[in-house]
Structure formats: C-alpha cells, structure tokens
Design goal:
Layout lengths: L8 H6 L27 E6 L3 E6 L4 E5 H9 L24 E3 L8 H13 L1 E5 L7 H6 L5 E2 L7 E3 L15 E4 L11 E9 L6 E5 H11 L1 H9 L2 E7 L2 E7 L2 E3 L5 E4 L15 H15 L5 E4 L6 E5 L3 E5 L8 E8 L1 H16 L1
Parallel strand pairs: 4-5
Antiparallel strand pairs: 1-2, 2-3, 5-16, 6-18, 7-18, 8-17, 9-16, 9-18, 10-15, 10-17, 11-12, 13-14
Helix pairs in contact: 3-8, 5-6, 5-7, 6-7
C-alpha cells in the first residue's frame, strides 16, 4: 500500500473509466483536464479482487486494475513504433529473408500479422504471387489500410519513358533514397509491385536508414548533430507541379531517438546554412558514404508477381541499371504507417484472444 502513495491523485482521477468520466463506446474523456483539481487528495485505498479502489476528496471513487497500477509504478509507456527503440537494425548480412505469400495474407491471420510486424520492426517485407494485373498493389494496401493519393495519382507506373520527368523512369541506376522528401508529411509506406521483368540488371536494393544514422551518431557525432539539427530543402518541379519542403536529414524525438530519415540526392537542394557550408557538406558526405556502402544494402531481384512494401521514413530503396533490350514495369502506391500500426494492434489482440 505504501507504493500507492506515490501515484498522483490527479492521475488516478484521470484514469477513472466510469460512465461519468469516459464514454462507454469510444472510451473518450467526458471531462476536461480543467476539471482535474490540483487540490485532489486520496482519502482511502481499498483492495478489490482485481485491483484497488481509491476514494478521493471530491467524493469520487476510482477503481484501477492491478496491471494498470504496475504500469504506473514502473513508468511503463506504450511502444512508439516510429522510434529506433522499437526497431531491429540490420545490414546486408542480417536483413530478414522471410517471404510472405499473397494467398496467406488475404484474411486476417497470423501471416498478415507477421508481415505487418516485420514491416514495423525491420522496415520492409516482401510478398510473392500478388496477381499480375493492374492495381493489384492497391489490394495489398487494403489488407491493412488505404492508399495515399498524390500528384502521381493513387498508383504510379515505374518504367522507361521517352521524356521522363524523373530519373526513376529511365534505365539508369538509382542510388539509395527515400521517396517524396519534398512533401510534408512524406508518404510513410511505399509498395512496389513487379508486373514485368525481362531485363538484365534492374536489381532492387534496400538500406536501413536508421542503422546508417545510428552508425553516423557513433562514428561522427558532429555530423549527426548537423544533419539532425539543420533544415535541408527538397524540391520537385514539373510543368504542373511545384513541391517544396524543409526538414532535417535525420529527425529525432525529444529523447534523442531517431524517428525519421529523409534522404534523396536527386531532389535535395544546395545547402544554405548558418553553419560553415563546407562542414555541412562533410556531414552530408559522411552519411552518403554509409547509405551507399554495399555492406549495408540488401540486394534482390523483384520477379514478376513480387511486391516489396517498406517504411519510407526509414528504409531507403535503390536499383541497379538495366539494359534497354527488355521490359521492366513496376506499379507503386503509397500508404500510411498509422493504418499498419492500427491493423497490427487489432490483429495482436485477436490472436492473443
């Protein structure tokens, strides 16, 4: 009982789940934080079969479960799926090799849960045997959420074009990058579905951007500080669209944990900074060396029917050059991490039950 004295009376009152305090259906508060008096006191504590009943000096009684009490006393907080603390960092030799089958994830199942878990923990997952037809990539996204529409539409085709307005629509090699850094917010999930591949080359590559940032912080903390505390400008232009955003290359939260990497050499503008520009270039070069190191890149071939889905705020994607004699056609779409996190949580509760 002595331990319970450490718990704030205001917190106890705020955790009350009775019908006067919380909506029975949504669980939303029925009271404002302004209703929490700083003069609240706990007058009495009584053990119940499942926890404790607190009597407060506003004559309200609050019942809390034992696991809730334990979480409060241990300082427990829900996992932040955007933070490096919830991730497993990997390089070329430690990237997961699990392949998921479309037929196994069409229902709410353990396989769909495992796919989402790998996406959230490792930053990517590979699905095979997705039907080779137009817009099948949207069917995959609908297993956990909704497509995000951009100026490219709800889907976009990645293939060689005669007058490309993006280097992705050529047969040139593309260095590791995140998509759409010129947006705020950036699309947080990307899926690329292979509809046709009869070329030599054109291999796909993935790099763990969080690991690259983690290594930079260990090896060159000054460069890490510059890339996480300076704004860099990204732009995209075509005859009908102008997009621009400013953000750090490496975004951290208030605890210093890495939560986002935004890296794209093609759309990053020349740095203009109060810091000496040559020092900024040194920091950029240090990070570029890490993300382009072959030892950090998981390389594989996307065959017809394969679809790779990845966290666009963490996982950089790349491709090797390919010959112009055959055809390579990928169809892509964007989605949001929050929907994947939500579906993951719902499936976890269902499977535990």
């Amino acid at each position: 009982m002595k331990e319970l004295e450490k718990i704030s009376a205001q917190l106890i009152r705020d955790l009350c789940s009775c019908r006067d305090c919380r909506d029975e259906i949504s669980g939303q508060r029925m009271r404002s934080v302004m209703d929490l008096s700083p003069e609240l006191l706990v007058l009495d504590v009584a053990a119940t079969s499942s926890g404790f009943r607190f009597t407060l000096n506003d004559k309200h009684e609050v019942e809390l479960q034992r696991d809730t009490i334990e979480e409060i006393l241990e300082g427990f907080s829900d996992i932040n799926w955007r933070s490096e603390a919830s991730k497993v960092l990997w390089d070329r030799d430690h990237a997961p090799r699990t392949v998921f089958h479309w037929s196994d994830i069409q229902e709410d199942s353990h396989d769909l849960y495992q796919l989402l878990d790998q996406l959230l923990v490792y930053g990517f997952a590979l699905v095979e045997n997705l039907p080779v037809r137009d817009r099948a990539v949207i069917d995959l996204i609908h297993r956990f959420g909704y497509e995000r529409v951009t100026n490219y539409g709800d889907i976009f085709d990645v293939r060689v074009e005669n007058n490309p307005n993006n280097l992705a629509f050529t047969n040139l090699a593309i260095a590791p990058h995140t998509d759409n850094p010129y947006r705020d917010p950036v699309p947080t999930i990307q899926a690329l579905h292979c509809l046709e591949s009869s070329v030599t080359g054109g291999n796909s590559g993935l790099v763990d951007g969080f690991r690259a940032a983690h290594l930079l912080r260990e090896e060159n903390p000054d460069a890490f500080d510059i890339l996480s505390n300076s704004l860099f400008n990204f732009e995209y232009r075509n005859p009908t669209t102008y997009l621009s955003a400013s953000a750090p290359i490496i975004k951290v939260d208030v605890t210093g944990e890495i939560i986002e990497v935004r890296w794209n050499d093609r759309s990053m503008q020349a740095p203009i900074s109060e810091i000496q520009v040559d020092i900024v270039y040194d920091a950029l070069r240090s990070f570029a060396i890490l993300v382009n190191d072959a030892r950090n890149c998981h390389t594989f071939k996307l065959n017809t029917g394969d679809c790779v889905i990845f966290d666009n705020t963490r996982t950089l994607h790349a491709r090797t050059a390919f010959d112009s004699g055959g055809k390579r056609h990928l169809q892509g779409a964007y989605a949001d991490l929050d929907s994947a996190i939500s579906k993951h949580a719902i499936l976890e509760e269902m499977l535990e039950a």
